[in-house]
Amino acid sequence: MEITWYGSACVRLRGKEGVVVADAFPSVVGPTGRGLTADLVTYSHRDSLSRGVGRSNLRKSSIEDGVPTSLQAAFRLEGPGEYEVHDVLVTGIRTARDESRGAERGLNTAFVVLLDGLHAIHLGDLGHLLTEEQLKEIGPVDVACVPLGGHMSAARAAEVVAQLEVNLVVPLLVAENEADSEAALAKFLHEMGVKDLTPQPKLVVTVSSVPQEATVALLESRARA
Description:
The protein is an alpha/beta fold. The chain has a single domain (2-224), classed as Ribonuclease Z/Hydroxyacylglutathione hydrolase-like (Metallo-beta-lactamase, Chain A), CATH 3.60.15. The protein has helices spanning 26-29, 132-138, 154-164, 178-192; strands spanning 2-5, 11-15, 18-22, 40-42, 75-77, 81-85, 88-96, 107-115, 118-122, 143-148, 168-173, 203-204, 215-216. Helix 3 (154-164) crosses helix 4 (178-192). The longest helix has 15 residues, at 178-192. The protein is globular and about 40 Å long.
């Protein structure tokens, strides 16, 4: 599985079964998507779908539906359930963007994707610790894409990693400014006991290369390329 980060919570997961892109909001990848393509696109929540996009740039078949034009051919998932799309198995788990079951900031869907024999979870804009029921729905995972700098603190994010018992963690810096993102990352790495990480352009992981203990992999944002 190849993992590439496009900024904020947007990541691309590429495997032999297909390509999945998560949270490709127009505010992150632009109204055209900048050439980003996929077989399947997932959205964890909807309130950011047209943020930062002028009405003159909206198209009925694309941004108004929350999908940049380069991703229009992709199958779209936005809610909980079990799916099989283009040979890719996906499970959506209902969560929330706050600690009040969504009453403050709305609902969220975390997606577990099976590619190349690996289960990867994209937590979206998760705002709370996971319940036992949610953990059961999620099941064992090998890779976790974890938001930092959003509503959930770095300490809580580290607790979620521990709950998932996952050994490969990819931080997603979602704060609106770089200083807040860097501060959240520093706190998270401290919580994880990690120092001196060097960002890499992409991450390639196989069943045999998954670490045996919790490891954080820092990616460079393609948005800055």
